[in-house]
Amino acid sequence: TLHPIAAGRGERTGLQESPRVPKTLVAYHSRGGSTRRLAEEIADACGADLEEIVPIRRIAGAGSLMFDALGALAGACPAIEPPRLHPADYDRVVIASPVWCRRVATPVRGYLRTWTGLLPATGLVCVSRWPGAGHAFEDMARLCRATPCATLALSARDIAWRQYAARLDAFLRELHAPSALDPRLAMGAAA
């Protein structure tokens, strides 16, 4: 964006380029709605685009919870609907996932495998029934092949009771820190 700059004595007026605001994408999967609510809040706070990660095949009924749990434990990677937004078009991406059996949700695993090695600076968010993210952050970082620039782990109860403002603010500060966009943080393909 160009904007006029005032001319000092003896100088010509001209145009100066405004500093570019980094573009952010928030991609998420949500089964019960907690992760969706948090992803929407993060996207609003960052002025980010929002992308829902949707599996192509969904299992319905009571058996679906068991199917999802077993898939998470086995490291399953289901096919997902083609994303409409390309993460490489962004300066940073926030990936938000529910935690299933202390692992990343399988649709998010599918998304991360799709974009392995192509993600820019990445913030990771996990929502669990219980405090802590288990192995989900480790799974996500390995699949991203990058060290996350920021992480946030919340319980579904924290979200329902809105008891996370300070932790969300800290996450957003880390995400927006100039060092978060430093490409030297990437672990590379050898990780």
Which SSEs are present, and which pair or pack?
Layout lengths: L1 E4 L8 E4 L6 E5 L5 H13 L2 E4 L10 H12 L17 E9 L2 E2 L1 H9 L6 E8 L7 H9 L5 E6 H5 L4 H12 L15
Parallel strand pairs: 3-4, 3-5, 5-7, 7-8
Antiparallel strand pairs: 1-2, 5-6
Can you give a write-up of this model?
- The chain is of the alpha/beta class and 191 residues long.
- It is built from six helices and eight strands, in the order βββαβαββαβαβαα.
- It has helices at residues 34-46, 63-74, 106-114, 136-144, 156-160, 165-176, and strands spanning 2-5, 14-17, 24-28, 49-52, 92-100, 103-104, 121-128, 150-155.
- Strands 3, 4, 5, 6, 7 and 8 form a six-stranded mixed β-sheet that branches. A two-stranded antiparallel ribbon has the order 1-2.
- The protein is globular and about 50 Å long.
